[in-house]
Design goal:
Four copies of one chain form a homotetramer. With 445 residues, chain A is mostly helical. Helices cover 64% and strands 4% of the residues of chain A. Chains in contact: A-B, A-C, A-D, B-C, B-D, C-D.
């Protein structure tokens, strides 16, 4: 068992296991035989015979990998064994016209499709959690924080809606990316030479067999597909990491506005019984960093030599799985942090009061402006702020004590200006937008 | 002058210069004033007065940046100066309702739009070069090389077509990315609080003024946009670097199949007069590495704190320009390598002969198969190969000497199997596809 | 002016400016001429004549770079102009036996030496600030925070001492790295062919002239030196970023334990007058991310082709300066955050109380252990914790109410166990160690 | 089985396996108990009892990791089980005074020590291969290649010596780094509070037990150690990747100067029997890219929060193993490429002739200089080059036909100038230096 079990989901680890890779490569070999049979280039019985043997259970996975170290690719020992497994009269049709990279690349595409399905399911789960929080906390006032300092009032509902909008964008992109997955078949030169004039037809049939699009050209030399897929997965991890960071920051002892839902054994400390650690959030951030860290390996591998890279392409074999494995944890653990999230709306409101109304200085200016114009309003507020700062007083109290304010606003109007609930702008409309946008993707799934 | 002049184009350096950044921020301030005026929230004359002053010539750029070091953002000193510049009765309307990040982010979007336009123009130029090469060299035989070893025959036309397909994909993506650029306006909390109920309308008008879409929600906390844009630019650099790598490899003294077009002073060496260095290709690869190296900074910055990051967001300010500047060189220099590329088709054909027909072993098997079946064909060819290897003979000669071959193929048929021109599969159809696909984008531009 | 002015110091920007690069390359040309003259291979008057012209003021920097784009390296146009500038009888001795890379690499070494001097001076400054804080706050109690949750009590003095120890380690490493800088001279093949049997002597003399060590072998093909230097600089940025992160977190509105020292115009917000932004800390973190982001480009460039890389080496030209420029800001701004740091010891103590003594549960167990053994002590404390948690009570109060505790400890002993000042372990000794270790390096400087 | 088996050695996979991690953590727990016993703080029999159970065979590894997902760290479930395993009277002394991070960090240090030992052994092996090649090929002439173009003559011996010098530097650094490994013990705050005044003594004893140095201060907050170790390992991979790249380039079909030693099943291709793929070199480059790709994750993790990072530290748990695993393959496979390397000295010499003497233009100038001065010599050579280029002639022939040459050099002297063996400068001395320097490290091992 590899150590990285902490930063992957078991499901994703399975999708990118050594055995599954071989199975997906065998799926490609089987589909190729069927495609050739449909084109009349391979006898049906041979395609059937090949297909029957294309099950990883028939192979010694460790031995295949051991020989792959010598052969330079797992395809060669895999195909050698497959040839041995099938009957004499099917033997010559195994792997016909394909090059080892065709099988590896298309196999990887199948793995990526499985991986994207897993990620999308968990992203939709996060979206649902965010949507519930956004709806439920439309009026839960809290401080917005810029550079970790209190800025203006916001609501926890809007914060969750902003998370939701980001998650929705990632879902949309990953679905788009999934639609872009395509088979790779070209032979060593990308010419499809072995199929003579039938090459494009064979590619089309193979694509059909695997329920994938056929590409315009072979992409053995153009690593745009794996690079773009991993970049997109990395972006999704960026969103997961952002949400998880917010949760961890909101859980700080001094902030205490949210807490990850309790599960037996979660987040405790043997020697510090008071601790309620942001266990899922921290794991999500760590996994997101790991996933994002593996993306450059795959993007950098685009710069490769001629018709098959000498080191760059091979780095994808581990780089792509690393991105997916870590991404699965980043997204799953973010979901874990949000599921059952405990929200302390009282603490939020208390924290909002910490700066004595200063977060509403802009609101006071906005209240004054219709009466004395914006320029004068700004000047007056700056005066109130100076008084408050120099006297260590509450801004609200200072406002009530400032004649330039009381000349134009009634006491109740001043109090209204310091009511955070009244200075939320488009809070509701924005939450609605986020919910609506997600709903569409939630149903699409 | 910064050292990095070697790895940027002057045009892109200008787009991301200190002065241009301020101008783009001022463009946003001017557009905001106009938007508010159209909504009736700011007097027309005030919007006009603000707009008149929003020209970087009126500002001391160095002083703004110097103060930005203290203020934490260039917006604060920029707005302070703008307020000084406008008349008393417009002063209060400057920057109304915006937070400093709104101006910086939307300003960056305008810079990115300018930057994408530059990149796209140069990518289309590369596409045209590739298209011309693909058309012209449909039949220019050369070895395909996998792991830097000769594999099967291909044509230089197909190689160029594969470059072209990759470039076309990058053009398509960058255009898509450009359409996704959106204004950012939300105020410090993203609530648009200062506009009361008018916030969404103001955003829509600002977007209209800047010819950009309005986003569903404020994206100050969701750094998907800059991260996705730079990732896409990085992918384009991957393609540029791939093409440039191929050119540099083909220019090797021992390969000599192409040479960058000569320009006075290009690629010489004081002490090695024979050298014809791949100057543009090398610069393109270096710049692509630099661009790809800056992408993770921007992607990593997605993981940021609350409503404005404390370090991550600011890293974008330099990270995004770094990606664009280096990308401009990666793409421009790749274009330079291809423009006027000298192609030595004789050398290509000579190189193809280096392995004595071995690159056509698969072709021989394909020729034998209809007569004796694929399984037997493979076996026969392996025998021929063994003979050739053990006797250090030419594979073609060995084939002519092998009875299992001569039993079923006439001498002329054997020769035909060793004619690379006859073993190109879908070469022409693939070139056509690449050309067709690009043509559409070439016209779209 | 490039945008990146916000993330570099002006001094470092100067060290890595286009003009300074050329000057450093000219310094190498001049030193080479002197070295050859000392060996009797060049007439003294020729070396003098060359030396007189090796001043960047005599060169059109922009023109050199413009031609460098064609030539592939700035050395070629630079040397061409230098040849024009010197008298006829010195002309033939310019650049003798060197290859363009020799000049660029050794010039870069001189720039890196200048750059390291700047970084070291600022790191020592940070060290002094940390040392003062460590000394002054030996007894300033505050919560240690793990995973952003209160853990055990610590002192701000120890926290500063831990920063100091990290800074001291970086100073030690960068000094070590600086000692490892070496000249590069080998000619195009690294054989020193043009000097016949005098090559090693010439290298030694050149090294002497430049006050640098001579390397065992030419390192044109072994990019360990620039990669290791930038890695070390990156590590120093990691420490800077860690300190700055702590400061920003401690400045949070809800935490409020420290504040960056005020400077006129620093950290304000136009619309949020209460904000005291962690301006220097945020800039330091951003710059550290940018510096660390450029390190992989240089490290990755180690994998390069034959006797001079085709793209990788050239990426160093911008990658190394990027690391240094951003590092200068990361370190300088961290210094700015610490200089005049305001420390609120009352707030620290108040925050320590937030968890009602729970941070001292381990202390209670330690107090009980001598009486009832550690196993029983742990069991008793877990009981107290359970009571406290279930009754939402203070842990100290719960301890006083628990018979298993009061059976063996006097009330005053219980109170002592809940006195954080009594549970600081080796606090003082550790602070002393950090101070002593730094002192040595402070004097070394 | 994870897919990454292709890019790790089995030995390194074992060192960083899930089980071995737990064993190393248990080693720390056992050593801590012994250290405390030696200080008289724990009864000897309790330390013995703990030590007896600290064997991973007694633990359900999968269950520990499963609970670690909830607990946030493997230490908590591991210690919980260990407590269950030991007798009642030892139970209370398990993990005394340590925090979970102490165990994880020191356990990781032990794994890194094991890992460095493996890497060093393989690096020494590479060094021996290089040393043998350097000695054997002192006079094997070949072209040095800059920007992939022929430059001056060199020898394969010097090329191997340059590889050797780089490898020697990496061995030296990794040994230095290994000496810098230190225990981590501090408790949650780093104060060693639970040990009262005995903390430093306990740390010293723990260090002794584990044969590691004691650090000046706890480094839980200062991630310099893991970051520096992985950076150093990354640098070693850079050297491995450089060597492997050279081998792959030299194996190109058109170059053919070396070939990886044959092993049964190595590097073949089913459909391209002529191929002799650079299997080990390619795997080495891929693994080096993967290792270098994981380094930034660990370096970036230095920027972390307070007394234990929330996501950054945890990313190290997988990032450090990833660097080591991939490094093991990068280094091992480079060794595989060199072991039994076949060198074709005839092909090297043939390739050197490809440019018709142009690689010796500098040599001709050097021969002319003593007679007519360097300036005139350069001018004459440029003339010869022009003639050769314009007439497509051999440079040597053009020299013989140029009067300015024949005026001062005898025909035999001209021929001598075009004898590459006579233009090797310090070739031998440099090879000697590399051999001497390595020998020292080879014996040290």
């Amino acid at each position: 068992m590899s150590q990285d079990i902490l930063f992957t989901t078991p499901q994703m680890a399975e999708v990118f296991s050594a055995g599954r890779r071989l199975q997906r490569m065998l799926d490609v070999e089987a589909a190729l035989a069927r495609a050739l049979a449909r084109r009349g280039m391979v006898p049906d019985h041979a395609a059937d015979a090949i297909g029957r043997q294309c099950r990883v259970e028939h192979f010694d996975v460790e031995a295949v990998y051991r020989e792959a170290m010598l052969a330079g690719t797992p395809t060669i020992p895999l195909v050698a064994r497959l040839v041995e497994l099938v009957d004499d009269d099917a033997r010559g049709f195994v792997h016909w016209g394909a090059t080892s990279q065709d099988i590896l690349d298309t196999g990887l595409v199948l793995q990526m499709r499985d991986g994207l399905d897993l990620l999308l399911a968990d992203l939709v789960g996060i979206g649902r959690s965010c949507a519930a929080l956004a709806e439920q906390h439309r009026t839960s006032l809290m401080p917005a924080r810029t550079l970790l300092q209190h800025a203006l009032p916001t609501t926890f509902g809007l914060k969750a809606a902003q998370w939701l909008a980001a998650v929705t964008a990632q879902i949309a992109r990953l679905r788009e990316v999934e639609r872009g997955l395509a088979v790779q078949l070209g032979g060593a030169a990308g010419t499809l030479a072995a199929y003579r004039d039938d090459g494009l037809a064979v590619v089309a049939l193979l694509a059909e067999e695997l329920h994938l699009p056929a590409p315009a050209l072979s992409w053995h030399t153009d690593r745009n597909l794996p690079a773009a897929v991993t970049a997109a997965v990395g972006l999704a991890c960026g969103t997961a990491g952002k949400i998880a960071t917010d949760v961890a920051l909101l859980m700080q002892t001094e902030v205490g506005e949210v807490a990850e839902g309790p599960r037996r054994g979660k987040g405790g400390s043997t020697t510090m019984p008071h601790k309620r650690n942001p266990v899922d959030s921290v794991a999500a951030v760590a996994a997101a960093r790991l996933a994002l860290g593996a993306v450059p390996v795959v993007m950098g591998a685009m710069i490769q030599e001629h018709e098959r890279g000498a080191g760059s392409w091979q780095a994808e074999w581990d780089g792509v799985p690393a991105v997916f494995r870590h991404a699965s944890a980043a997204i799953f653990r973010t979901g874990g942090a949000l599921a059952g999230l405990e929200v302390d709306v009282d603490r939020m409101r208390d924290n909002l009061e910490l700066t004595g109304g200063a977060v509403l200085a802009e609101s006071l200016a906005t209240a004054l402006a219709p009466h004395i114009g914006r320029p004068a309003a700004n000047t007056v507020v700056q005066g109130v702020v100076s008084v408050a700062l120099s006297s260590d007083a509450d801004l609200r109290a200072a406002a009530h004590d400032t004649q330039a304010v009381t000349d134009v606003l009634e006491p109740a109007q001043i109090d209204a200006a310091f009511d955070a609930a009244g200075y939320l702008g488009s809070n509701n409309a924005l939450i609605d937008r986020a919910l609506t946008s997600f709903t569409q993707f939630d149903h699409d799934g």
